[in-house]
Amino acid sequence: MASAKDIAQRPGNATAHSLSVSPSTTFHSPPVSRSFLAGGVVPGRTPKQLKPFNTGDIKILLLENVNKSGRDILEAQGYQVEFLKTSLPEDQLIEKIRDVHVIGIRSKTKLTEKVLREAKHLLVIGCFCIGTNQVDLEYAAKNGIAVFNSPFANSRSVAELVIAEIITLARQLGDRSLEMHRGTWNKVSAKCWEIRGKTLGIVGYGHIGSQLSVLAEAMGMSVIYYDILTLMAIGTARQVPTLEDLLREADFVTLHVPETPETKNMISAPQLAAMKTGSYLINASRGTVIDIPSLIHAMRTGKIAGAALDVYPNEPGANGDYFNASLNQWAEDLRGLPNIILTPHIGGSTEEAQRAIGVEVSEALVRYINQGITLGSVNLPEVTMRSLTLDEPDHARVIYIHRNVPGVLRKVNEILGNHNVDKQISDSKGDIAYLMADVSDVKVDDIKDISEGLEALSSRILTRVLY
Ligand SMILES: NC(=O)c1ccc[n+]([C@@H]2O[C@H](COP(=O)([O-])OP(=O)(O)OC[C@H]3O[C@@H](n4cnc5c(N)ncnc54)[C@H](O)[C@@H]3O)[C@@H](O)[C@H]2O)c1
Predict the structure, then answer these.
(1) Residue 231 CA: which ligand 1 atom is closest?
(2) Which tens digits make up the pLDDT trace of 195-222?
(3) PANTHER family from the xrefs (predicted)?
(4) What is the number of structural domains in the chain?
(5) 310 near 343, Cβ under 8 Å?
(6) Residue 113: domain span
(7) Is the pLDDT of residue 17 over 50?
(8) Residue 206 CA: which ligand 1 atom is closest?
(9) Is 123 in the same domain as 195?
(10) Where are the strands (E) in 310-411, listed by range?
């Protein structure tokens, strides 16, 4: 990926325009530095004068054993990457975060306002996981810090787990295996089924639901699905108009919806009553989607022949003997049921998914650092433009993260207006707006003027100039 050079200015930075190697504090016009030469300038060509830093000046802290696939991508860019296997206690985290431009975390590191307040140079946070609850997204956005995650890299892993569960439930494999572990030979065929020709009902036909649809059809199942959106069917799957239609028809019901107020207890006593007698229920979405006491009742009465749960309303923060009544009051009842598969939220936990997460998040970080592209950001508006290349020596990319208040664009364009603006794009998300403009025929002094002009605007949160 062609790496543009970056100037970033943070609000309230008194040292702006002094000599510095920090990409998030300032720019300067020093003699060409050794690190700049190492950044790929061909000897003999006249180097550009404004060189605040090259990729080697970007400092990245990776915590919580981020997958090697992600580390490799960041190191290949020439960034300085410090890698730690664990998360850090808050005081050590604060100490370390003061210095870095990028931090990569998984779910254990809490990036609260208290921590982020100390992160004076931080440009971007990479959550090498699905969720972003561990980060104060609003504070980050208000301070121009982008946050990226990887919400869909484990879809296939979840879909495969569900396929395994469908067969396991249909053949009562969990129970037979437990019996054998206890020394009991119990060869039965009653109420054990092939899945060929059975109907799978998928609730939520998104990334996981649609993957599952393909796999289930390949094994001879008929697939129906219900979604709040009208979505194009894959293969011969068929969308049904209501949840009730799906529950009435399906032999296996599997849930793949997000956690929203509408999906809370989406499967409760009336929905279980609407299901076929002897059908199966699978939930690898969110723990709040099923009303578990109602499921326990439906299994005890024989209405539901089997269930697989991977997610629960309350889940422990660490591994250990925690799946008991003090975590969820019905836990012991659930554990006592036959033909129920209970797994500890492992739907997306595979080596492949971890690798895919590493690649997806690191690539998003590189795009953001080098080109200012925010596609996939969870807290900033998503803005993209094709990258600037070294063939465009007098181009600059201006990025202006600002408060979304009336009149900003007019003021920004008064500053950019004297220059040749090739492209400009702006978008907002709540109180925060992100503007990106590519300007051509700009010399060192022009870039300096643009940067200083934007910095002086009262709406500014962060100004970066890439060139
Ligand atoms: N068990 C795990 O380890 C694991 C791993 C990854 C994802 N998940 C969970 O799986 C779920 C699905 O993930 P995804 O990546 O497929 O999400 P997605 O956003 O791609 O798809 C969700 C689908 O649900 C639909 N939907 C939303 N509200 C609905 C409603 N009330 N009724 C019917 N359909 C509705 C949406 O329109 C969308 O098509 C999420 O809850 C996610 O958190 C679990």
Answers:
(1) 39
(2) 999 999 999 999 999 999 999 999 999 9
(3) D-ISOMER SPECIFIC 2-HYDROXYACID DEHYDROGENASE FAMILY PROTEIN (AFU_ORTHOLOGUE AFUA_6G10090)
(4) 3
(5) yes
(6) 18-153+351-371
(7) no
(8) 21
(9) no
(10) 340-342, 396-403
Residues 169 and 239 in one domain: yes
Q: Which of 147, 101, 142 is nearest to 128 (CA)?
A: 147
| pLDDT digit string, tens, across residues 178-196 | 999 999 999 999 999 999 9
Return the pLDDT at 10: 53
Answer yes or no: is the C-beta of 154 below 6 A from any ligand 1 atom.
yes
When the pLDDT of each residue in the chain is averaged and rounded to a whole number, the result is 88
Among 256, 289, 341, 343, which residue has the most ligand 1 atoms within 8 Å of its CB, making it the best to mutate? 256
- Classify residue 383: in a domain, yes or no: no
The number of the ligand 1 atom at minimal distance from the alpha carbon of 263 is 31
Q: Are residues 148 and 26 in the same domain?
A: yes
Catalytic residues: 286, 315, 345
Q: Whose Cα sits closest to atom 15 in ligand 1?
A: 207
Look at residue 304 and tell me whether its pLDDT is greater than 80.
yes
pLDDT at res. 54: 58
CATH of the domain at 60: 3.40.50.720
Length of the chain: 467
Our answer on whether the CB atom of 257 is closer than 6 Å to any ligand 1 atom is yes
In 3D space, the residue among 251, 227, 261 whose CA is nearest the CA of residue 241 turns out to be: 227
CB-CB neighbours of 38 under 10 Å: 12
Q: Which of 419, 413, 411 shows the shortest CA–CA distance to 459?
A: 411
> Using one digit for the tens of pLDDT, what is the confidence trace for 343-376?
999 999 999 999 999 999 999 999 999 889 999 9
Contact 137, 116 (CB under 8 A): no
299 CA distance to ligand 1 centroid (A)? 25
Least confident of 18-32, 241-255, 363-377: 18-32
CA-nearest residue, atom 19 of ligand 1: 206
Q: Atom of ligand 1 at shortest distance to CA of 205?
A: 39
What confidence score (pLDDT) does residue 389 get? 72
CA-CA distance, 70 to 75, in Å (whole number)?
9
